[in-house]
Amino acid sequence: MGILLLSILMVVTPVYFCCCVQLSFQESCLNPFLQELNSSLAEHVIRFANEPEIVTWMKMIRRKIHENPELAFEEFSTSSMIRHELDQMGVKYRWPVARTGVVGTIGSGSPPFVALRADMDALPIQEMREWEHKSQVDGKMHACGHDAHIAMLLGAAKILQQLRNHLQGTVILIFQPAEENGEGAKEMIREGVLDNVSAIFGLHVLNKYSSGTVASRPGPFLAGCGSFKAVIRGKGGHAAFPQESIDPILAASTSIISLQNIVSRETDPLDSKVVSVTIMQGGDEFNIIPESATIVGTFRTFSRKNFYALRKRIEEVIKGQSAVHRCSAEIEFDGEEHPTLPPTINDERIYEHVRQISRMIVGEENTELAPSFMGSEDFAVYLEKVAGSFLLLGVRNEKAGSVYPPHNPYHTIDEDVLPIGAAIHATFAFSYLLNFTKCSHYL
Ligand SMILES: [Zn+2]
Ligand SMILES: [Zn+2]
């Protein structure tokens, strides 16, 4: 820890406490004492994260994980590598959590607890880009940047471990499996990773933004996501005698057309929803009307209320259209009681805190207000339980070739952003614990 940061921590903290308790959080962030403290902390952290050996080490981790991608709940060697690195640092951890997950702890071991999260899983995609550290596993690839998320969180662990004696509580490091299938966060929560946690932070690299830009927004950020499968049954027969059959293909077709009207005719144009039918299956021969047809799709909204209303209408429309054509329909929704993934809703106070930390690390000019968008992220499941914030970290750099979107076989990242991600994680956790401990209104 730098002398400057240490002296500020010792001198400013008691003074800050007196001032802070009378201010709102928004005001307290403008408190010059806190600003000085946070910017000194951010300065120290970014300097440490950018030390050449730390950068080289983070790149090495990202590349090793990239070479050996593992799908949801199969992240055994990824998890083993994470544990090895935590062992090297002397960070304690719990394992296995949710089959392959690792949960590290740094700090006093006492409340408050603040959590940082990285996801570990890869995708069933064949990497097409030729480079030194290309995926060694056919048909599997880190095409969503989760390899970078792990390297950044391990980088943050190294920084926080160095600062451990100054942490005003405990940092929980969540390395979770299975983000891509939407199950990882749910299992981690069932195994208690959020017990006593007051706040959580997570980030995602994204090629939409230039390297070093961070983007987020308060409130609803990413959409909630659900899926459905409808089996429409009729009566099979010879296609030359349709009067002797009940045609499920026709019922499926009119169902698909009518589903489009829910968004275009029943929704306020200023409200945002999506219904997309993505699979249609039925029949095997040109001259046979089949017994049944199946349609599968997804739907997205930004509120739980809209989510359930939309789900109800999807069921009504498919059943109604099937009945018009004398068919019956059975509809299954993924997740009986809950959406597959709820909307990602950032807590306004934590968002503001992260924004100020980000501004200190990447500068005001590189801190953007992101628009809401229809993608989904299982970090949302944590945000249903505790206050937190999620942000996007730009990795777009033409020279690094990192111009392809997530889930693309040419996807890659600009590795020069690894220290930025590590620094944001570490600075947020450190300063959150300080705020929590010193500001009664932050409880
Ligand atoms: Zn993804
Ligand atoms: Zn992802």
Automatic annotation (TrEMBL):
Amino acids binding Mn(2+): 144, 146, 180, 204, 407
- Cofactor list: Mn(2+)
Keyword hit for Repeat: no
| Recorded GO MF terms | hydrolase activity
Question: Which top-level group of life is the source organism from?
Answer: Eukaryota
Q: Which family does it belong to?
A: Belongs to the peptidase M20 family.
The entry's protein name is IAA-amino acid hydrolase ILR1-like 2
